[in-house]
Specification:
Elements: H1 11-27, H2 32-63
């Protein structure tokens, strides 16, 4: 089920959470199971960030005058 827009993380929140996930993974203090769960969460957060960036790029591209 897709998240409702009001439930979606902002770019900044997703980026901050991703940074925390990376820091935790880099510390090496997690078990294998915890590390796998963190990796999966990191992948999901990275996807959210990329969707925000793609959306912003599309808006910028649409606002630019056509180059013809």
């Amino acid at each position: 089920m897709a998240e409702k827009k009001s439930d979606a993380l902002s770019y900044e929140a997703a980026r901050d959470q991703l940074a925390e996930v990376v820091s935790t993974l880099e510390s090496g203090s997690s078990t294998l199971e915890e590390s796998l769960a963190l990796w999966e969460r990191g992948e999901a957060l990275a996807k959210i960030c990329q969707e925000w960036l793609d959306g912003a790029k599309a808006k910028l591209d649409a606002a630019r005058p056509s180059e013809k």
